[in-house]
Every structure is written in C-alpha cells, then in structure tokens.
Amino acid sequence: MKSSKVSAVNNNLREITPEEFKERLASKLDRHFEESVDEASMEDIFAALASMVRDGYSSKWRRTRIAESANGHKQAYYFSIEFLPGTLLRSNLLNLGWLDTAKEALADLGIDLDEIAAVEPDMALGNGGLGRLAAAFMDSLASTGYAGNGNGLRYKYGLFKQKFVNGYQKELPNDWLKQGDYWEVRRESKSVLVKFGGRVNMVDDNGWLTPQYEGATVVRAVPYDVAMVGYHNGVANTLRLWDAEIAPEDELKYPSIADRRKVEDLTSILYPDDSSYDGRLLRLKQEYFFVSAGLQSILNNFIRDYGEDSLTDLPKYVAVHINDTHPAMCVAEMMRLLVDRYRMDWDEAWEVTKQVMSYTNHTIMAEAMEKWDVGMFSQLLPRLFDIIKEIDRRYVAGLEGKVSGDVIERTRIVKNGQVHMAHLAIIGSHSVNGVAALHTQLLETEVLRDFYQLYPDRFNNKTNGITLRRWIQIANPDLAKLLDKTIGTDWRFDSKEMLKFEKFYHDTATLTSLQKIKLANKEKLAKVIKDKTGIVVDPEAIFDVQVKRLHAYKRQTLKLLHVLKLYQDLKAGIDHPKRVVIFGAIAAPSYVFAKQVIKVINSVADLVNNDPDIKGRLKVVFLENYNVSLAEQIIPAADLSEQISTTTKEASGTSNMKLMANGALTVATMDGANIEIKDAVGSDNIFAFGLDKDEVYNYYANHSYHPRDLYESDTVMKKTVDALIDGTIPGCVSEGRALYDDFLKDNEEFLVLADFEAYLKAQKLVEKVWANKRQWAQMSLVNIAHSERFDADKTIERYASEIWHLDKVEVDAGKA
C-alpha cells in the first residue's frame, strides 16, 4: 500500500477556539435567521451549528474527491439497501475535532449541546444491525483513510415510526425529512435514468446485438450526497442516496398527483410489505433502482477519469461490495452495462465483473436469502432477466461433467420458477465473506457447502465491528474521560490501547469510578424512561437490556419467560435482586408473530409494574421506536446485555459489541460473535449458556425436539409457560395462546424451551455476581478493555487489504 500523508494519529487539523466558535454561531444566526443567540430557538441553533459544521468539512470533502481522482486511487463502493447513521451533528463535531470546543462554547452561552443535538431526527435509512453496520463502515472507511463510498436509497419515510396503542405496535409515517436534511447535497447534474418493464428486442447494429426497448417506464434517479467525515484526518468520503423523480421530458405522462406518486413512491419507504404482490414488486423495483443508478454513476465517473477504452482495467480502480442479497443485481447489471452499453465481449465483461464484485452474506436463514418469482422479475426487468439466464446457462455448461448434476441443480441461479439472488452474488463475485467465525464456518459446512466446495478460495471471514468512537466518546463521555485518565488518550486513535485498561483490574479507585459512571448513566436513563412512559425505575437495580430487531430467532420470548418466572417467584415470596428489564425492538409490519410478542411483553409490563405485592422489585419497560439515538441513551446504562438468540441463527450481532464496550456483562448463547466475545474476555467474564451448534443441528437432522415432553416434566417451566394462557396476564388472550402454542409445537425451530433451564441457571449466576459489586465492576472493566477487538476500523482494514485491495488517500490534513 502507498504510504499516506494522513495517519490515524495526525491531529494537525485547524483548531477552533471557544471564542471563535461562539462568534461563528452568532454570525450564522444573524445572517440566516436575523436573531441573536438569546432569541434563537433550539431548532434555529441546531440549523446554525449544522451550517458551521458543513463549512468545517466542505474543503475536506472537496480535497478528498480531488485527491482520489488525481492520484488514481482505487475506490470501494458499498451497496446496501440500509444505512443507519443516526444523527450526525455530534459525530461530525467529534470527527472534526470540535466536540469539546462546541460543548464548552455552548455551555458559556447557557446551552446544552445534547439538548440541541436532540432536535436532529435520526436519518430513517435503515432498520437494524445491517444498516448500522453499513453506517459504521462508512465512518471507518473515512477514518482509516480509504476511498470508500456508500450507495443506497433516500427513503422519505424510512421503515415507520413505532407507537404502542393498548400494547399493540402501530406503524406511523416517519417524516424525518419534514424540515429537510441539513447534511445532504443534491447533485442534479449526476442524475441517471433507470428503465422498468416494457419489451426488449435484440437488433443487429453493425454486427453487435443491441437491445431496443419498447414501452419501458423511465425513472430519473437523482443523487443526494452526504459527507462521511473521517476522524481527525482530513478525509471526507460520500454516502450517495438515490431519489426517484419524473424525468422533465416525461412530465406530460404523469398529469395527476396520483400518477406522479407512482414514481415518487419508489423511494418512500424501506422494506415495503412483502405479504402482497404489489409490495414485493415495489421492493424489487427499489433494489434494481439503486443498483442500476449506482453502477451507472460509477462507470460515468470512471470513464470521465480514465476513458471508455480503459474499462477492462476497471478492477484496478473500482471495488463494488454487495451487502447482503438486496444489491445482488449488481452482478447482472454490471454485465448489462458492459455488454450492452459499452459493447464489451461477454467473457471479458464477466471477468471484469467478478474481479470488481464482492459479497457479504449476513444470514444462514433460508428465508432471508432473497428469491424472486421468474414471472415478476422478467416482466419488470426483461433485459436483466435475459442477462441472468445467460449467466445461469454458462454456469451450468461450465460445470457439466466436472461435478454432479445434483450440485449443479442446487447451486444454479434460475430454478423452480425463482431467481436465487444469493447464488447470483456468489457466482458473480471474487470474494464471499461471513460476519463472525461461527457464521462463516456454518456457511462453508452447511448453508453454502456446495459453493464452498466449488470455490473454496472465495470464502473468508470478516467479523463485524462497531464505531467505538460513537459508542464511547459520544454516547458515554465520562467513560471516555476515565480511559483518558487511566491509560492516556492514544486509545482514541488506536483502539488496541484499550487493552491497557485491564491493568486497573485491582485498582479500587478505577473500579469505584466505573461504578459511579454507570450509576450516573442509569440515572439519566431512568429520567428518560419516566418522561417517555411514566414508569419509575430504581437506578440501583440491575438494568437488564435486550435491544435489537424483533424476530423469533433473537428470542425476546425467552427473556419474556424469565420475566414471568421472576414475577411468580416474587409473588410467592422468593426474593431476587431488584431488576429493570428493558426492551427495545421493532417488528416488521407483516410479521404477525413478532407483533404478538410485543403485545404480550407490554401486557406483562402492565401487570408487573402495577402489582403492589412485589414492591417494585421488578419493572418491565418496552421503549417504543427504538433507533440509534435511543440506543445511545440505553446502552451506556446497561448492566446486563441479553444476547440469547438460538445458536446458529445470529450471523454476528453488533448490539453485543456496543453493550460490551460500555461495560455491560453479556448473557450469551454461543452464537454469532458471542463466541469471539467469550474468547476475548474469558469464560469468567461472560454468562454463557445453552445448546451448542452440534446439539441444535442434531435436533434439526433427527426431528427429535419435542418441547411438550420438557414442559410436562418440568413443573417450573410448566407454571411459567402456563401463565400465558391461565389468565395471569390480562388483555392478551389470543396473543398469549399464540406464544404458548408456538413454544410447544413439535420441532419448534428456535428451541426456546430447550434452553429455558440453562437460561435460568445463567441468571442465577448473574444474581450471585451482582451481589459482589467489586467483582461485577472488574468483569465490566475486562469487557470494556477487550471491546477493542470489535472496532470497525480494524474490520475495515481487513476488508481493504484482503478483499478490496485499496490504498490510502493522500490528503494533506493540515490544509484540509
């Protein structure tokens, strides 16, 4: 790799003093709002601050683009249907090196930065871990000094805003763009056109078969760019988000508002309801829209810089990463553009495409590996379907006589009336990676075994990571200060330095400080809970947290059973340490079971929180509309991190890493990255329990899981599960019955009752350790120290060197 003028420890950026900061703020308010700081609303102050920050990084953004182009840097383009950056004000202030200055300057003016930052809505561009990972990678690509850009969709309403009504989840539009987005820049001149439907005829054009489109719908894709600012290094990359508009020349085709909405709704919501044909069709449109727009943009830029004759050199300058199966059409669309638009020979185009493309698989669950109905696909994308059929035909022909027909049939792209998107991504990429050691092992030996045997050199592991900057420096500043005090500030630039924190394992002053910081964070969260729900919780209690997307495999249901068991014990006079169980989760609108789980949890919360007999020893809180901003309040306050997915089902997890970094102790099945957390901290610093992967797969292979036998033979389990149907929980008769029936059905996939007894034992150990405050603090300290292993910067370094083959951008930070 080329040496970079930007090193991770280079902090020679232009500094700004508190006085200068206040002067700039006053100037912005005067110029844009004609008001003073004293007169300004929090919204106006936020807008002024955002404008100041944009001024601070604009030259860096421009210089980065110039440096990338002028120096011929290879660039990675990360295609993801989700990005979940959260809010950007404090993140950008931190990465510019202005955060402490901003806090001091605003405090001088009697203003709390956190209150101003709360004005900013979360960017509603994602749902869960997939989107948060993509956003973390954008931050890390810039912060490690690589040329890496995001490519996604500019959803006007995101997924939805979650509200609870009588305990039920209700979905409301999330109008996060109502006040505009202060960070985006519309690049109208970079717009491209995307075609849907119609007919395609192949006609001879001077000896080259060229597609001729008839009756296609043409949609204009307009990019909105958001700067991704590197940490103290002068680099600013780009997250490009595409919006759908009507092309000016087609205005007359859409005379009514309803007609216009048919086009504009293409980018309205994330994950349309896939329980209907129209919902699935819209999702397929979305996926092709951002794939085609993104690849056209990349090739336009490449040809501008290097010329069309250099397209065979594309892999030297461009890496396209397919994040899960949603952008898998990148393979076929790149082939379409190279062959149809630029008239590259098929075999040459295929080699270019494979070298450019790489793919991350994020699941082992078959239903999450997208498959599209051939009829729908061919009608919406006729030419792309022709391309995919030809890729499939050549794939089959190339393997005939080399491997068995069964292997060919299992791995081909088009079969049984469906287009298998994961197969397309694997066949058309040079790299396929899992996101935790166990996940990758299961891909190679179980889920994608045929592909691994065909292409063993393509498979590799890249365990997920998190942006430690955000989850410690921003979300938990007092912990950051304690690290500074004990181990120095180098950890802010090199997370490996955090390992030195373990040297303070026996230091009473440090352990006491750690306990005080946690208690203060819990007091802040207790206020948030009171303000949002009216529930009063004791900060001295165990804050037991399970925050993640709601899905059966993540087993919020197992935690629910534990809550019921604790409640029954307390009612019977069996004492337990005071505990506050905190849930945060969103269920997909069409996911009936997940919504039933939400209703039951909320009904149990109403029961428990209002029962005077248990004297407040147990509280249950389900905070609605879980997002990044809420996570930043919950995670620093957590004592216990619930990572209790069915073993073999969670690809990696990232909430486990964030909670660990903030000193929460993990209750964990040996699933996903939990295994690597255990490896990092040691078995004495995690509460591991449950079935291992071999036991799980034995159940699946032998169809030998009969939960009713466990239920009938275990009186504790029976009493706990019966609470769902015996009238204990008011207001959720049908939902309670749905969970009860699911737990007890033969070969229930997620093995909830199989792990019940082991989970209760793990929670007894939690209570025992909780009684020894010093031991708990020591275990917390070890987890914080070893969270450096999961720094996304390290993950990106591995992607950059082993998959994308990037070098670092040469930007003079001092001039940026």
What can you see in these coordinates?
The chain is an alpha/beta fold and 816 residues long. Helices cover 47% and strands 14% of the residues. The protein has 32 helices and 23 strands. Strands 1, 2, 5, 6, 9, 10, 11, 12, 16 and 17 form a 10-stranded mixed sheet that branches. Strand 9 and strand 10 form a beta hairpin. Helix 8 packs across helix 10 (330-341) and helix 22 (592-609) packs across helix 29 (733-744). The radius of gyration is 27 Å and the shape is globular. The protein starts with 17 loop residues before the first helix and ends in a 12-residue tail after the last helix. Mean pLDDT is 95; it is low at 1-13.
What would you say about this model in short?
The chain is an alpha/beta fold and 816 residues long.
Q: What labels describe this entry?
A:
816 residues; alpha/beta; ten-stranded mixed β-sheet; six-stranded parallel β-sheet; 32 helices; 23 strands; 47% helix; disordered N terminus
SSE layout and pairing:
Blueprint: H1 18-33, H2 42-70, E1 75-79, H3 89-96, H4 99-108, H5 113-117, H6 129-143, E2 148-153, E3 161-165, E4 168-172, E5 184-186, E6 192-196, E7 199-205, E8 208-214, E9 217-229, E10 236-245, H7 257-264, H8 277-306, H9 314-317, E11 318-323, H10 330-341, H11 346-356, E12 357-360, E13 371-373, H12 374-380, H13 382-399, H14 405-411, E14 414-415, E15 418-420, H15 421-427, E16 432-434, H16 437-447, H17 449-454, E17 459-461, H18 468-474, H19 477-487, H20 508-533, E18 542-547, H21 556-571, E19 579-584, H22 592-609, E20 618-622, H23 628-634, E21 640-643, H24 655-661, E22 665-668, H25 674-681, E23 687-688, H26 693-702, H27 707-713, H28 715-722, H29 733-744, H30 756-770, H31 773-786, H32 792-804
Parallel strand pairs: 1-2, 1-11, 2-10, 11-12, 12-16, 16-17, 18-19, 18-21, 19-20, 21-22, 22-23
Antiparallel strand pairs: 3-4, 5-9, 6-9, 7-8, 9-10, 13-15, 14-15
